[in-house]
Amino acid sequence: MAEEKASKEGQDNVVFVGKKGTMAYVLAVVTQMNQGAKEVVIKARGKAISRAVDVAEIVRHKFITDADIKEIKTSTEEVTAEDGKPLKVSAIEIKLVKK
After folding, report:
1. Which of 40, 61, 65, 74 yields a CA-CA distance of 20 to 30 A from 32?
2. For residues 8 and 24, what is the distance between their CA atoms, to the nearest angstrom?
């Protein structure tokens, strides 16, 4: 039960970066940290990876200057393309923590 709560709690502090503008994701991260989250994970795949890095840097340098990057994980995920073929896509997770 405690593990389930911890995993749910961890999922609340995840921002998935996609096609929206960078500032939409910056706002999501800043909002979570202002609501008391000590750490937020920014996740992205494929072309959105550079946007995720931008989000982390904007948050750290402009909005929450006492935030630090705790961990960066890179990986490759296999997804199925529209034609049914397997496709490998790069992914990144950036963990920001408040000091």
Report:
1. 74
2. 23
pLDDT at residue 11, rounded to an integer: 63
Q: Residue 12 has what pLDDT?
A: 77
Name 92's bridge partners. 44, 74
pLDDT digits (tens, 9 = 90+) for 26-52: 999 999 999 999 999 999 999 999 999
Domain boundaries along the sequence of the chain: 2-98
- State how far the Cα of 34 lies from the Cα of 29, in Å rounded to an integer: 9
For the residues of the chain, what is the DSSP string, one character each? -HHHHHHHHHHHTEEE--SS-HHHHHHHHHHHHHTT-SEEEEEEEGGGHHHHHHHHHHIIIII-TTEEEEEEEEEEEEEE-TTS-EEEEEEEEEEEEE-
Domain spanning 2-98 has what CATH number?
A: 3.30.110.20
